[in-house]
Design a protein that fits this description.
The chain is mostly helical and 169 residues long. It is built from six helices and no strands.
Length: 169
Amino acid sequence: MNKARDFLVSIGLVVVGILILLGNYNMVIIETQVATTYLLLFYGLIFVITSMNGNSRGLLILGSLLFMAGLILFIVSEFEILNPVKTVLPSILISFGAAFFLLFVDNSKEKVFLFISVILMGTSVSLIFVLKDHYLYSLANSVSFLILEFWPILITLLGLGVLLNRHHR
């Protein structure tokens, strides 16, 4: 299945590269948000499908998060949502809940994934319906915006940690 995934990823990258080049020469007009949405949906599906029934849990989580991010972008761009800012934290919780649910579907013996999924999705639903204009909701959205703004720094630090840990072994 790795060959199929690698083939699909490489084809996707070639198509994206060609579209970007055509866009630079004004031969094709594609909005960045639309292109990003479909790329996230496409790669998310590829990673989820190719990692099911395998030992690549990280790829399964990555694929489900990419797909959910693409789905959220699609919903926000295609439907009129009065205040899309209020959807950030519930969307993050639903995305991680879906990722853990896929981990449970991949290995149904691991009930902890189902438990975490139900907790995350339940928390998201409660944030949507119970805490609409509450201070805690605003605080949680502010924290989620900070996380979204500084996630490249967190990923860089994680990568450095992995590199330093590898050299210590």
